[in-house]
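Journal club side-thread
Mid-discussion, someone asked how the predicted structure for our own chain would compare to the paper's figures. Pasting it here so we can look after the session.
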Amino acid sequence: MIRSLLVILAFATLACLPTPSIAKVPADPTKWDADIAAFAARDTTAPVAGDALLFVGSSSIRMWNLAASWPGEKLINNGFGGSTLSDAIHHFDRLVAVHHPRAVVLYSGDNDISQGRSVEQVTNDFMTFVARTQQVHPGVPVVIIAIKPSVSRWQLWPAMREVNAALRAHCAATPGLYFADVATPMLGPDGSKPAATWFKSDGLHLSEAGYAAWTRIVSETLREAGVMQKSQR
C-alpha cells in the first residue's frame, strides 16, 4: 500500500514539472523566404561590420527607423512585419547566427497571441529563441522588449501581460538577459487601455511618439547591459 502511494506521489510530482517545449513550426515555412532573401542580399551588398546592435522581430522592428533613434551606431534591422516567434526561430540562422552583434534586441509575441497561441507556447518560444542566441553568441546580451498593449488588440492584453510577467522573471534570473518594459508606460491610469497617441491610425503600429518612448527605454536597457554609453540616447 505504501509503495503504491509512493509511486502515485512520484507521478504527481513529475506532472507538476515544466516540460520542454519545441517551437511550433510555422504553418507556411516559406512565407517569409523573400524577406529573408532580401536580408541576405543587403548583407552582401552593404554589409555591416561586427559589433552591431541586431534588432529582430515583427513589424514594430521593421517599421522602426533605427538610424534616427541611434545615429552613428552600427545597426542591423532584421524585422519582418506580421511574423511570429516561430518564424524567427525557423529563420534563426539567417537572422541571427550569421551576424556577430554586440547585443541582440527582440520584439515579438504580439502576432503570436493574436493568432491564438497560448501563453505557455509563446513564453516557451521566447525561451527557445534566447537559448539559441546564447548558444551561438555566448556572452552577447539579449534584450527582450515587452509585448506592447495596443488599442486594436486590447482584448488580448491579459494574455500578453502574463507572457510579459514570465519574461520579466526569466530575465531577472538569467545572466545576460534583459527586459525592456515598454508596456507599463504605455498603459493608461490604473492599467487601462493605452492612449491613441502611442499609435498610428490603426491603433496597432507605433506613432513617432511611440517610437521616441521605445528608444528611451531600450537605450536605458542597453546601458544596463553595458553595450551603450550614458551619453548615448
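Post-session note: Residues 1-21 have pLDDT under 50 and may be disordered.
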